Please model this.
Amino acid sequence: MRRGYITVFLSLSLTLILSLVFTVIEGARISAIRMKFECVTDIGMNSVLAEYHRELLKQYDLLFVDMSYGGSRAEIANTEAHLLGFAQKNCRPGDGGGLFDSRDFLAMHMGMVEIPEYSTASDENGAVLKRQATDYMGDYPLGAVLDRLSANIGLLQGAGIDTKDMAAWRQQYEAQIEAIGLPERDTEDGGKEKVPLNNPADLANATRSSGVLNLVLENPSAVSAVKVDLGEYISHRSGRMTGSGLCAEAVEAGGAPNELVFQMYLFEKCGYFGEQMDKSLLKYQIEYILAGKDTDWQNLEQVAKKLLLWREAANMMYLLSDSAKMAEAQALALALTAVMLLPELAEPVKYTILFAWAYVESLQDVKTLLSGGRVPLFKTAADWKTGINSIKNVRGSLSEDSGGNGLNYKEYLQIMVFLQNAGTLTGRAMDIMEMDIRQTPGNAGFRMDGCFDSYLAHLEVTSRFGYSYEMTRRYGFY
Model:
């Protein structure tokens, strides 16, 4: 009888023990599923970031994932498929069905992967791109460069050099000459004719239509002849992809985008006249960022024109302050026959001569800059290069000069870039990046708006044992 009591007692005890064991096992299964889901999510989302674009990192030190993966269509569905594949392989790495499948303690399967938010490089007028560039330049010694740049910009703007309308200023004196009119003299046949002014300033002004580069370059044919179709690039392309914008986590971790630092980044990564880069499609990349034309020639020409206008304004201001040079212009004006017959012409003619002289000196300045020399923002008598007779022979009076003091071509470009509209500058910078990356193998369809650097993913996992869990995480390069 005792044996029967013991058997019943043992049976009851085993039931309780087995219930506890199975409960513990099931609890362990639930915890394991949750823990593994965390690991799978972490591994999968980091694996997506590990597919960053290699050429973009190599050429521009930027970490972005190309949603086209070298294909022709950039869309977030491609990345969702990659994330699903990574997650599923890590859920059941030995999943082959049959015997091993039936023994899977967790039997996990990815039910859904969705990426509702992602930050593309072009979001918020390129703020996402600029944040990465700012972060990259964090250890760059920018202090002295930015201080010098700020000082030069202050001097330029304080004098109004960047806003002076030189053509209107010059034409008001030409209009005065026209209003006064030239004197007349008798001809041999008893008629009348106007006395020619023979203003040497006219000889200088006649070269204005020749194009700056044709005047200041020794060999204009050596200028790059590259031409591009701007409609293919992001600043001109319609249907641009947009993401969720700059994420707060990225700003908190890496700092906010800084316009000045981004501009210095462009000078590190882009070429310009005299400092071209072999990797580039357009050879004068900074000039393209400033001018936005479809050929290297036009971009360099536009920048040279702006340089010429700035130098004309500064040089004319100097001439007006130099009494000796003002006297030279006065003497040359008074020597003209028409002025001798009509003295009231002397004053406006003097100023046209001064404008022509400032123009020729400015051509010399641009030639010096493009030759690798330096030109100060504001000149002294010691810095002046041309004589007053140079206005009679503009081309013959210009000479190459790689010396001097003041600012070099790069420093003038930095001022121009600073004064450029930020949105325009960033759009054209992304054009340059697309141009260069598309030249590399497998990247013919590359586009900056198809690249993201952070994303929010929502994942769901199910188990054959009846469990289902969801998780939302944000990962990125920050």
